[in-house]
């Protein structure tokens, strides 16, 4: 789940880039400021609002664990292996299966998983959900 702290940090970075753009005009810093602003507006803020909406109006369900997705970015600067829990549950209003994806994590959660995982979802907007990964013995960011 995206926290308000994440959004504040992204806004601070965007503001610093804008100040740098006006103090020492450089097209790269201007472009980076626009990219950060677009990231906040189109990605971070909707995810934050969706998580808040799910927490406030969501229904807690047990979604069936389908798989643990594993990948390695292969980049020297990356943190290496990443894992996501993929779970599914039927939408009670239309019967269609809805997929839920956990936040990426650097430790394999598979040894700690059962058949289901708790998800809080607002079925009026199924994109607004929060998967409960608090049962894992490690921190998920």
Description of the molecule:
- This protein has 141 residues and is of the alpha+beta class.
- Helix content is 36%, strand content 27%.
- It folds into 2 domains: 4-55; 59-131.
- It contains 2 helices and 5 strands; from the N terminus they run ααβββββ.
- Strands 3-2-1-4-5 form a 5-stranded antiparallel beta sheet, with helices on one face.
- A hairpin with a 7-residue loop joins strand 4 and strand 5 (129-131).
- Helix 1 (4-23) runs antiparallel to helix 2.
- 14% of the residues are buried.
Strand content: 25-35%
Helix content: 25-40%
Question: What is the helix/strand order?
Answer: HHEEEEE
- Going by helix content, strand content and strand pairing, the class is alpha+beta
Overall average residue pLDDT: 88
Q: Give unreliable regions as ranges.
A: none
**Principal-axes shape call:** globular
Oligomer class? single chain
Keywords: Membrane, Transmembrane, Transmembrane helix
Transmembrane segments: 7-24, 30-48
């Amino acid at each position: 789940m995206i926290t308000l702290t994440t959004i504040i940090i992204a806004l601070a970075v965007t503001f610093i880039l804008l100040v740098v753009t006006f103090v020492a005009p450089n097209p790269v810093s201007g472009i980076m400021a626009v990219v950060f602003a677009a990231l906040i507006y189109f990605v971070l803020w909707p995810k934050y609002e969706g998580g808040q909406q799910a927490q406030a109006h969501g229904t807690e369900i047990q979604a069936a664990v389908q798989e643990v997705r594993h990948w390695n970015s292969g980049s020297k600067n990356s943190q290496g292996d990443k894992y996501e829990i993929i779970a599914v549950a039927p939408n009670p209003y239309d019967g269609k299966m809805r997929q839920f994806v956990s936040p990426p994590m650097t430790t394999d959660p598979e040894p700690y998983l059962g058949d289901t995982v708790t998800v809080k979802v607002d079925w009026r907007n199924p994109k607004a959900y929060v998967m409960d990964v608090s049962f894992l013995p490690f921190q998920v960011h």
